[in-house]
Amino acid sequence: MSAQQAGRLIVECLVAQGVEHAFGVPGESYLAVLEGFHAHRERIRFIVNRQEGGAAFMAEAQGKLTGRPGICFVTRGPGATNASIGVHNAFQDSTPMVLFVGDVGSDFRDREAFQEVDYGSFFGPSTKGFAKRVERIDDADRIPEYIARAFATAMNGRPGPVVLVLPEDMLRSMTSARPLARVEAVEPWSDPGALRTLRELLMKAQRPFVIAGGGGWTPQAAQALQRFAENWRLPVGNAFRYQDTFDNHHPLYAGDVGIAINPKLAARVKEADLVIAIGPRLGEMTTSGYTLLEAPRPKQTLVHIHASAEELNRVYQADLAINAGMSAAARSLEVLSAPPELPWEDWTAAAHADYLANLVPQPLPGLPADTPRGAVDMAAVVALLQQHLPADAAITNGAGNFASWVHRFFRYHGLAKGHKTQLAPTSGAMGYGVPAGIACNLTTGRVAFTIAGDGDFLMNGQELATAAQHGGKSIIVLLDNSMFGTIRMHQERDYPRHVSGTGLRNPDFCALARAYGYAAERVTATDQFEAALLRALAADTGTLIEIPFDPEVITTRVTLSAITKAAQAKA
Based on the domain organization, do 297 and 382 belong to the same domain? Predict the structure, then answer.
C-alpha cells in the first residue's frame, strides 16, 4: 500500500465520511491539506471564504442542514480565534461541526511560536470552553481514528463542535493509513417505563403543552412528532429559532416560544399543567429568562426529553426526564396510544387561534391605528415573501430586532415537509445570516432568503464575494436604520435619550453589493417590493434589496419613542 502525505489523507477521510463541501480561509500551516483538496477536487469542494468567522458560520449552517458535521479549515492563532464565533454558535445551537486548525510545527510547540495558541485551553470542555472535544493529531498514522472519533463525538448525544489541531510538520509526513468507514450517530432510546409514566401524566392532564426544538431533528423525526401531536391533539410550540421543527401551517401549531413571544402564548405556557419539552435545552430565550418555567422546579409538571443525559436535570428538575435522541423519542411517542376522548381539545384550538390572531399586525402603542409603520410595511413584505418564496426556501438571519419581522409573521413549513427552512443563531450571534444563506444555496441549490440589519450585514457582508466566486446566490433584504437597533432599544429603556455608541454611518449598500458581484436595488415604498422580489428570484446572481427603515419602528410590537417614554415615566 503506497504512502502519501498526511494532508491528502485528511481529505480522503472527509470524503469517506460523505463530506462534499468544506469551508475555510487558507493558511501556510495547512498547505498539505490544500494539496489534498486539489487532488480530490472532483469529489469534494473547498469553498474559499473571506474571513474565518464567515467560514465557521457557513460550516455551522451546513451542519444544521444535513445533521452531519459541517467542516471548516483555518490556520493557527488569528485564524482559529476568528473562527471561534462559529464554534460557539455550534455549541449553543447544538449543531455538529468539526473545525480543523493548522498549527505550528511540533518542534516549535510550547515556545509561544508565531501565532501559537493552546487550543485545549481556548476551546476545551475542561476549561468550560465551547467545544465537545479538542484533540491534536501528532501521529499521521492515527488520522483516520481521530477524524472518525470527531464525527462520532460531534453527532452523538447533544450534537456540537469538535476541534482537531493539525501540526504543520505532521501534515507533511508520509503515511500508509487509510480512511475508516463512514460514522453514523448512535442514539439513546426512550425507556419503556418512562413512556408508560408519560402516558399516565397525559391521562391526568387538563392543559398540556409541547415545546419542540433543539438539535438532532430529521424530517422523519419531525413527521413522527406530528403524528404524536395529532394522536393526542396536543398544542405544539417551537423553541427559540427552531421555528421549523413543527409545521407552522398545522392546526395544532401554537407559535414560537422565544424572544418577543405572543403574550397570550406566554400566558398559556404558564397556565399549562403539563409541559412536554422535546429536544430543547430550555435555555434563557425559550423560557423568557426562566420565567415561563421557573427554575429549578417549575409549577407545571415537566417532562424533559433530551439527547444528552448531562443536560437533563442540569437547570430544571423535571418530573420525568427521558434520555433519547430526537428520532428515537419521536418514534416512541408516535405509537403511544391515546384515548378517543380528550379534555383539552378546546384548549388546543384556542392556542392555534391565538397564533393566527398574532399574525395580524396590531397598532403600535401611542400611535393611531391607521398610522403607517414607516414607508415600507414589513408585515406586508413578509406576506409577499410567504406568497412568492418556494416552500423549501431557507430563511436565514443573524441577530437583531430586524429578525422579529420574519420570526413573528413568516410561517415556516418545517422539517416534516422534508427540508430545514430556518437557519438562525440561538446564540444571538450577529453576522450569521449572510454566510448561512450563501452556504445553503451553494450546497443545496435551494433558494436562500436572508433578512439583515445594517450592523448585522456589515459583520460578514464580505462573504458576498465568496458567493460570487463559487457561483452561489442569495436574496438579502437589508433594513437600514443607521443604528445598532436592538442595543439602542435597550439603551433607551435604561438610559432614555442618552444615545452613545449605537449610531452608524453606513456605506452605499447597493454600490457595495454590486462591487461584490450581486445585483442591488433600493426599495422605499411597500408597493415597490413585490417587483423587486420577483426580479431577485429570476436573477442569475444574488440580489441585495436595501430598505431604508424608520428608526422609530424598532420591533413588531412597540415604537422606540414608546420605550423612551415608559423609561422616563419609570424614572
Answer: no
pLDDT in tens, 390-400: 999 999 999 99
State the cell numbers at 19. Answer: 463530506
Domain range enclosing 437: 378-570
Dist CA 433 CA 61 (whole Å)? 9
Same domain, 52 and 130: yes
- Report the candidate in 459, 406, 419, 462 with the shortest Cα–Cα distance to residue 438: 462
Angstrom distance (rounded) from CA 495 to CA 108:
51
Report the relative pairing of strands 253-257 and 4-5 from DSSP bridges: unpaired
Query: Are residues 237 and 171 located together in one domain of the fold?
Result: no
**Do 468 and 392 fall within a single domain?**
yes
Average pLDDT of the residues in 429-443: 97
Amino acid identity at 192: P
Residues whose CB is less than 8 angstroms from the CB of residue 529 and which lie 6 or more positions away in sequence, other chains included:
376, 380, 381, 384, 523, 545, 547
Is 235 in the same domain as 141?
no
* Final residue of a structural domain among 130, 146, 175: 175
Stretch among 297-311, 348-362, 373-387 having the lowest mean pLDDT: 373-387
Close Cβ partners of 387 (under 8 Å, ≥ 6 residues apart): none
The answer to whether the CB of 150 falls within 8 A of the CB of 69 is yes
Domain holding 497: CATH number?
A: 3.40.50.970
Say whether pLDDT at 14 is over 80: yes
What are the angstrom distances between the C-alpha of 200 and each of 205, 229, 303, 339? 9, 16, 12, 12
Residue 383 to residues 250, 358, 379, Cα–Cα distance (Å): 18, 14, 6
Per-residue pLDDT at 515: 98
Tell me the average pLDDT of the chain. 94
Is the pLDDT at 369 greater than 90? The verdict is no
Residue 121 binned pLDDT confidence (cut-offs 50, 70, 90): confident
pTM above 0.85, yes or no: yes
The answer to whether the CB of 375 falls within 8 A of the CB of 548 is: yes
